[in-house]
Amino acid sequence: MMKFDFLFQSSPWFIPLCFLLAGLYAFVLYQKNTNWTKKQNYLMATFRFLAVSILSMLLLSFLIRQVSQKIQKKTVVLAIDNSQSMNVVGAKVLEDLKKNLNDLKESLQEKDYEVAFATFNEENTQNLEKLQFNQKTSNLSNLLSGIKNTFEDQNLTDVVLISDGIVNEGIAPASESFKFPVHTIGLGDTIPKKDLAVKTVYANKIAYLGNKFPVQTDITSFGFEGKTANVYLKQGAKFLEKQTITFNQKEDLKTLTFNTTATQIGVQHFTVEVDFLSGEFSNRNNRQEVYIEVIDGKEKILLLALAPHPDVKALKSIIEKNENYELDVKILTENANPEITKSYDLLILHQLPDAYNTYANVFKPLLDKGIPTFFVMGNQSGVNNLNQLNQVMQINADFGENDKVTGIFNKNFKVLNFETEQMDIITKFPQISVPFGDYTLLPNSEVLLYQRVGAVQTQKPLLAMNIGAKKSAIFTGEGLWAWRLEEYQLNEKQVVIDDVISKVLQYISAKDDKRKLRVYPLKTPLSLGEKVVFETEIYNAIYEKLYNLPIKLTIKDEKGFTRNYTYSTSADNTKFEISGLPAGVYRFNASATVLGKSEQSIGEFVNQDLQIENINLTADFDVLRQVSNKTGASFFHKNEFEKLKQKILSHDVPDKIEATEDLKEMINLRWIFFLILTLLTAEWVMRKYLGGY
């Protein structure tokens, strides 16, 4: 349905004036002409009158509003839980389910309903014959929220959720609010089966070569009271340790801890497995895998401080949060000649150099080695001496002249990723002491935090980094400890300032990658069934990107089986995809000839077989009933589709009208132009035909 009306941008009294002027013009033009008949005069005068009337009204800038209305069909969404746990009901039940859903769809469409399907992965949802129950997690709240967002503007009357009620990801679906009724159909068996399961496996993501580390696991049982079972820890095909447990009650849980030693560098694949006992319902949940990265030592950091200071303790606390760091702290006023025998990856100088450059013999040799350095200033810092040592900034200030400032995040800083909204908390931190003077950034330097005096942001850096070949950073303030205390007071956690310092340390200590060939997976770990996508970068001598070079890629699994691939890249596509890999740890070697020289890139990735869906195989219809009760809907069993159909059809919902409004200026309508052209052309042709000039 469509309707029109006019909107006036000037007084409507001008319309009669337009008609009056057009009529007067036509009357004056044709009333004295006696060469034509009266009828011919009237006809041509009418053409002129209409054309001039329309033209004059166009000058009034009329608006034409076009409103179209459409009645939306009632929509029903059939949401299907297509997770792996649904396979427990058997292939016959799932085939019957697909048939019943198709029949329900056809019955509703005959009643002029729109019917749509929804699943976890949104694939093949219109052709149920191709629907696979293979999703590795069940997130019912996310499924219903997706329907809510997708059909927000449509006449959604009912949603039907078909599920076993098992939720292992996201929040409970009944905790969310939905404006549409959610009818539920329960599949599966709510009676627990005799079963053993490796419920969880706990382990650190990182272990260090040669160190012992724990692997903890929870084993659950139902119906095996008085029985014993063996639990194994394996690495690949090798058995590392076995423990025997006895279940004391019908429903039991046992926690075990295995201690093993990291013997190989790289990602290592461990498996926890429990015996399959006679009478057990399923063995799919009798094992779980865990992947641990074994690294050869930690990144070593040396913190040299002029004297004891709360900022030194604050830095120590921040660094020790990262288990990949090994920190040594040396206070020079307590030991003027500390023994430095290690090779360090990062140097932190607190209030060094001082005004008298007292301990230059300690830190200068380290700086000369090119170790990345983070300077943290204080009231005892020697500004002139610092200017000679750093490549970040120059400060023109007299010793002892300080200013009180707060910090403010530089929103144009793009070297590291920070959430701008989170960084706003820095403006609430207490004032800290900085040298009072002029600051000049050196080439390749970027400001992360500016100094803020009161409510005024200055252009003086508070925290800046040199991102050139020799990375370094300077924090010009004294009072880092007070910032951490204030953040804890505000949020009961210390996140923002710790994140800033940690990322700065990671960036300046990171080794530059000078390889001409770089091949790496975009995501790791992967879940079984996902494609592994390799990104490829090839560079010439001045690190301009190259393309169309053949690359050989070799992938080896834990058993030593090798897969070989060859591909090339282009400016439009630098990725290479591989699918169908079994679960496990894979090591790859990519090689190419770049400008006559052989280049290599090696690495590893993990393909995990998540067993979340196999841990719990007992249906939970209470979850489904809660969702239906909360939304004013009903719960049905798998053989009650006819009742469900009648329930949907009895849901009396008013039609929803969708209206769209289109506002146009009259002068922009093409048909107006052609109407005027037609009127004037008809008049001209008639005058010429009658011998007029």
From TrEMBL:
Record carries keyword Glycoprotein: no
Keywords assigned by UniProt, alphabetized: Membrane, Transmembrane, Transmembrane helix
Source organism per UniProt: Arcicella gelida
Cross-referenced SUPFAM superfamilies: Class I glutamine amidotransferase-like, vWA-like
Identification of the protein by name: VWA domain-containing protein
InterPro entries attached to this UniProt entry: Class_I_gatase-like, vWFA_dom_sf
Bilayer-crossing regions: 12-30, 42-64
